[in-house]
Specification:
- Helix 5 runs antiparallel to helix 9 (174-189).
- It contains 9 helices and no strands.
- By secondary structure, the chain is mainly alpha-helical.
- The chain starts with a helix and ends in a 6-residue tail after the last helix.
- It has one domain (47-187): Orthogonal Bundle (Tetracycline Repressor, domain 2), CATH 1.10.357.10.
Length: 195
């Protein structure tokens, strides 16, 4: 394993064990068995290394969610949405350290333009992947429409994730969200009577 791969493996360990905010460059070197100059040479900065490691973890997470969502080839698009929310809740503890690390990174992004750009790229990659999943679920959607739906689904997913991280006893269940969606969709399509 080369230094780049060792650094990424070490960064993943650090993210899961210490989080984003508490991981130092020295922690990364110790976890990877490399040296400080390797971080700069391969990634440019500690943040860039941590962000790439986090992106790898999120890519794996999204692939796992996609596998769950498409497990039933006969599922309707709304059943797939519910399956994705259930998968998020069911994998919460497994991915909790990663989710917390991402929240820590978001808190720092306001003051670090490079970090903000890298995290925005994480969202862009997620949006593209989820849009592909949406288009695979709904025939005939344009790419632009699929991206809009993907943005909505990611927003709901992150809101649900945050509530489950903070207060799982009072967070909405995936079934409750589906009930709300099934009520809201028809109501949103009703046009008010002209006056």
């Amino acid at each position: 394993m080369g230094h780049r791969e060792a650094l990424l493996a070490g960064a993943r360990r650090c993210l899961l064990e210490q989080g984003y905010a508490r991981t130092t460059a020295r922690d990364l070197v110790a976890a990877s068995g490399t040296n400080l100059s390797s971080i700069g040479y391969h990634f440019g900065s500690k943040q860039a290394l941590l962000n790439e490691a986090m992106q790898q973890c999120f890519d794996e997470y999204i692939a796992q969610i996609a596998q769950i969502v498409f497990a039933d080839p006969g599922a309707t698009p709304l059943q797939r949405v519910q399956a994705s929310w259930e998968a998020m809740v069911n994998t919460l503890e497994q991915y909790r350290p990663l989710r917390v690390a991402f929240v820590e990174a978001l808190a720092q992004a306001e003051r670090v333009p490079e970090l903000r750009a890298q995290l925005a790229e994480c969202y862009e990659r997620a949006r593209t992947t989820v849009a592909d999943m949406v288009r695979a679920s709904v025939d005939g959607l344009s790419e632009a429409t699929a991206r809009q739906v993907a943005s909505f689904l990611i927003a709901v997913h992150h809101g649900l994730q945050t509530q489950w991280l903070l207060d799982p006893q009072h967070a909405p269940t995936p079934a409750a969200l589906m009930t709300a969606l099934e009520i809201a969709l028809p109501a949103a399509q009703v046009r008010p009577a002209s006056q």
